[in-house]
Amino acid sequence: MNERNGNAMNISILGAGAMGSLFGGLLAESGQRVTLLDINDAHLAVIREQGLRLVTDSGDRRIRGLTACRPEQASGHPDLLLVFTKTLHTEQALASIAAHLAGHTRVLSLQNGLGNAETLFRHVAPEQVLIGMTTWPADLHGPGHVESHGLGVVRVFSADGVERPACAEVATVLDAAGLRCVADADVWAAIWEKVAFNAALNSLCAVTGCAVGQLAAVPQGPELARAVVQEVLAVARAEGIAVDPRHCLASVADAIAQHRTHKPSMLQDVLAGRPTEIGSINGEVVARARRAGIAVPRTEMLLGLLRLVEARAREAAAASGPLV
What we know:
Helix content is 47%, strand content 15%. By secondary structure, it is of the alpha/beta class. It has 2 domains: 10-185, Rossmann fold (3-Layer(aba) Sandwich), CATH 3.40.50; 189-318, N-(1-d-carboxylethyl)-l-norvaline Dehydrogenase, domain 2 (Orthogonal Bundle). Helix 5 (165-179) links the parallel strand 11 (154-158) and strand 12 (181-183). The longest helix has 24 residues, at 297-320. It is an enzyme of class 1 (oxidoreductase). Residues 186-310 form the Ketopantoate reductase C-terminal domain.
């Protein structure tokens, strides 16, 4: 990889919300050159003027030296582009930084859902694309202020399954930042298991308005979550992915038991009247299930319910008229 300053990697983060800022802050703290790209002007301004306030189990500190700007203002060509945008915004976001990408740039998606690799393939060569998943938690507590408590992991690999030196190098850089990252040839199993987790808990919480722990208020809550997990993993197996149902079901049970007040991002989007990522999670599962001839009635029902919720939000926004 090129464009190094000493031993530092030149890294851009596309989508510097909670997760993007967490990763960017930890990478900068570990000595990498980091540029945060986002359209939240208030967030960017605070980071430029005061640094990023990062609160983790390691302490409360400000990370300075970060470059923070809008995507169209990006300059140079990074060694690594980390993509954290919402899936429904990825195409437009990548188009806005087309001049920022070069042949040596590796592009890593750690986004939720399915279909991310295919989107990246439309903008860079397949051999430049890395795909992965992460379980790190992060919350944005205001402009320039991100918090993350507890542990997470990161799994990455080449999207086309070919082992390349760049994959191990990226994993080493993320791991050195404390992100507990490994290059994992079985990354697609981890991605599908996270999709099953999100299809169950995110969509259930978004439809009901429940925090994760409130799903246990009646037996049908956890039962429905388990059923959705089984449906999603059946589709994964049909695509030849060696998923582990026991591990995924245990993760769902642990989340319901331990994350009692947590509001998943999809519920937060619903409460704020924003479009959700249901299309890249339940929507992708349903589409692939139909192609494989597999019935996923609960996953499909939740998709339909979320589409209705989104339609109601659009109607409410239209009825309220433009802000003046």
